Structure formats: C-alpha cells, structure tokens
C-alpha cells in the first residue's frame, strides 16, 4: 500500500520503516522492565546459589572418589614392594644358576660373579620407583585439600605416577608384578578422567 500510495520503486520492508524515528514507539517499557527486574534478579540469585551448592556437593563426591582411588594405588604399590622383596633372593639364585650353566667349563671367580649378579639384580630393583610413587600419592592427597585450583598439579602428578608405573613394568621380572602394573595404569587412567573435571 505504501509503495503505491507514495509511488515508490522496489519493495518496502520492515527494515525501511524501522530506520525512521518515531514510526514505532514503545510506551511504558521502562516501567515494565523495572517491574520485571526484581523477580528476575531473585531467580538468578537462587539459580547461582543452587549451582554453587551443586558444585560443592559434586566436589565432595569427587574428592571422596579420588581419595579411594589413590588408596587403591597405594595398596597395589605395597603389593609390588612385597612381591619384589620376596622374589629378590630367588631372582639372584636363578641368575647365578643360569650363569653357571652358561659358563660350566670356564673358571669363574665366585666373588666377581656374585658382584656382577648383584648389580644385575639391583637394576631390576623397583624400590626407588615405589618410594617415588608413594611420594606422588601423598602429594596428590595434599593437593586435594588446597583451596586454590589444582587441576594442572594433579595432572602433573598423574603423569609422574604413570612414569613410575612404566619403569616398574619395564623392570618387572615377575608376572605378578606385571599384573599389578596393569592395575596401576588402569586406576591412573580412571583418576585422570576424573581430574579433567577439576579446575
């Protein structure tokens, strides 16, 4: 209608009309907005409080789960230590027997043989890795108590735990220890998934 009445070329769109001031006016909008603010601000405040409470509850549950998982790691490392201690002398004896069989016809200095075998057995020793693993577990649990964001720190500690588990696995001379290393790595991965939810 406008186009024909005003003899305009082309289409007249709503954008054209809105570009002119006072073509469309809103009356009472300010008062309406003012009246709506109080219920909206109250709803936002309640939603924020509900969100904070939900995050607090989630944090409590997450911390409990992580502590239980770290306790499981600790128990598995103690099992590895026990197995390694029980097997150390046995490994030394087996190695000594194998070397004797290989060198049956050779004259062997018994003291030199024992020294070399002790060095080999020492390289298979996982004591240092277990001690470091215990330390990482302890640091992990302490970090959970911190008030500041600790997500990156926990991730770093998990990397270190995984490194120690890998080293223990590479030194493993026992299927029992290898099995425990798999358990460690599985649990570390579960913890890593949980830590992704921490700031």
Brief account:
With 199 residues, the chain is an all-alpha fold.
> Domains counted in the coordinates: how many?
1
Q: Please give the alpha-carbon distance between the first and last residues.
A: 61 Å
Quaternary form: single chain
Q: Residue share in helices? A: over 70%
Residue-averaged pLDDT = 86
Classify the beta-strand content into a percent band.
Answer: under 5%
The topology string of helices and strands comes to HHHHHHH
What would you call the shape? elongated
Cα-based radius of gyration, to the nearest Å: 35 Å
Structure description:
With 199 residues, the chain is mainly α. It has one domain. 79% of the residues lie in helices and 0% in strands. The protein contains 7 helices and no strands. The chain has helices at 2-6, 14-18, 29-102, 110-123, 127-144, 151-171, 175-195. The protein is elongated and about 120 Å long. The protein starts with a helix and ends with a helix. The mean pLDDT is 86.
How do the helices and strands line up, and which of them pair or pack?
Layout: H1 2-6, H2 14-18, H3 29-102, H4 110-123, H5 127-144, H6 151-171, H7 175-195
Give short descriptive properties of this protein:
single chain; 199 residues; mainly alpha; 0% strand; elongated
């Amino acid at each position: 209608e406008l186009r024909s009445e005003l003899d305009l070329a082309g289409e007249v769109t709503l954008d054209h009309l809105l570009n002119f001031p006072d073509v469309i006016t809103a009356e009472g909008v300010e008062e309406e907005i003012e009246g709506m603010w109080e219920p909206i601000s109250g709803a936002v405040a309640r939603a924020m409080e509900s969100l904070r409470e939900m995050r607090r509850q989630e944090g409590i549950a997450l911390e409990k789960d992580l502590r239980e998982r770290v306790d499981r790691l600790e128990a598995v490392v103690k099992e590895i230590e026990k197995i390694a201690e029980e097997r150390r002398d046995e490994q030394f004896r087996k190695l000594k027997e194998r070397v004797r069989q290989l060198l049956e016809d050779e004259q062997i200095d018994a003291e030199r043989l024992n020294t070399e075998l002790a060095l080999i057995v020492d390289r298979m020793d996982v004591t240092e890795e277990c001690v470091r693993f215990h330390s990482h577990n302890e640091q992990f649990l302490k970090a959970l108590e911190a008030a500041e964001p600790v997500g990156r720190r926990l991730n770093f500690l998990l990397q270190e735990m995984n490194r120690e588990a890998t080293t223990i696995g590479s030194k493993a001379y026992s299927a029992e220890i290898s099995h425990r290393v798999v358990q460690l790595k599985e649990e570390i991965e579960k913890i890593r998934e949980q830590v992704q939810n921490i700031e």
